[in-house]
Amino acid sequence: MSPLPLLTYWRGAILPVLFVSLAGCGVPGAPVPPTVKIPEAPTELTARQAGERVLLRWTLPRLHTDGTRLDGPPKMEVLRAFVANGVPNEDTFAAEAKVAYALPPQVVKSFLHTDIVAFPDVLGPSLLREQAGRTAVYAIRAVNEKGQSVGLSNLVGVRVYPVPAPVAVIATRVTERAIELRWDAPSRTTSGTAVEAIAGYQVYRSETGAPGSFALHGTAGTTHYEDTQFRFGQKYFYAVRTLAQYGADTVESESSVTVEVAAKDLFPPPVPANLIVVAGAGRVDLTWDASAAADLAGYFVYRSAESGKGYERLTPEALRVLSFADTSVQSGMRYYYVVTAVDAEGNESPFSAEVSATPLPPE
To answer: Would you identify the CATH topology of the domain 276-357?
Structure first.
């Protein structure tokens, strides 16, 4: 149908104006499929054996392959294969690996620390015995809701072995200079095999005993450890892990029982030395050398009318000085003196060497 003319006026003349048909304009074309959102691959995967677990760490992807941000952690798959030697190429790994774990987003969140996922692959005694000395190879894959993935993370491998049974009993003793720990060496692994060789022990310490609060405090080559970095009046919690040696490889056991130690100061300060006495008119003067104690509170002075017994304390409070004048004496009478040192906890040293003097008559 031809377009209809429209008459309009312009400067007194009637001019025809034609409308051009716009038939077909604005009609949508063929539908365009939505862009497929696929998360980028995880990166920086590492692995190490700790006890019966292999601890995996990797960096979480935050973007899709088109550059848009992920709303949260994607579903992640942990792939694992056991091989005889080294880390294979990606094609060989893909042919042999199996999905050991399929982690939904909410589970990934529970293992997420900032952008790092720390996930334990618990192998257990049976699998460790079966795969002893072989390499566990891992890769991580991030997938979308349809199971689509851009590919694998980097591949990592760790040689796995049975681990020593945890130390069952730790004996403790607090001395003046250290907290001492002793235990028996394990002879069997949790897989039931004999422990081939022990490379040493790792000692972990905490001041609260709460899970996750233990930090490596030191190492020991034998079943004895001395912790000299402690404070009296503080509680400490200890756990020990055994290091098993397999050729050039070292594997750490699970933690031992946890033992609690109250570092109570029951140790008196050193005895004051070089006690000197001087008899004067109506008085006796005493001096002595300082006791080398970090928490020294002072000194007590004792007196007796008999040698070696019957001492009575002359100083109600601990003296902070290294001298004392005894003026409650009788001229011509012999007196016997000893001095002790006392610390902040009230621990008192044994008596010093005894000295004696006879006050002179008043002038």
So the answer is: Immunoglobulin-like (2.60.40)
Q: What's the CATH number for 43-159?
A: 2.60.40.10
pLDDT, tens only, 285-318: 999 999 999 899 999 999 999 999 999 999 999 9
Domains 43-159 and 276-357 share a fold: yes
Mean pLDDT of 8-33: 47
Q: pLDDT tens digit string along 73-112? A: 999 999 999 999 889 999 999 999 999 999 999 999 999 9
For 232, residues 6+ apart whose C-beta sits below 8 A from its C-beta are 263, 264, 265, 295, 345
β-partners of residue 216 are 204
Q: Is the pTM of this model over 0.85?
A: no
Provide the residue ranges of all domains of the chain, joining segments of one domain with +. Answer: 43-159, 170-262, 276-357
The model's pLDDT over 203-256, given as tens digits with 9 standing for 90+, comes to: 999 999 999 999 999 999 999 999 999 999 999 999 999 999 999 999 999 999
| CATH number corresponding to 170-262 | 2.60.40.10
197, HSE (Cβ side, Cα atoms, 13 Å) = 7
Q: How many residues appear in the chain?
A: 363
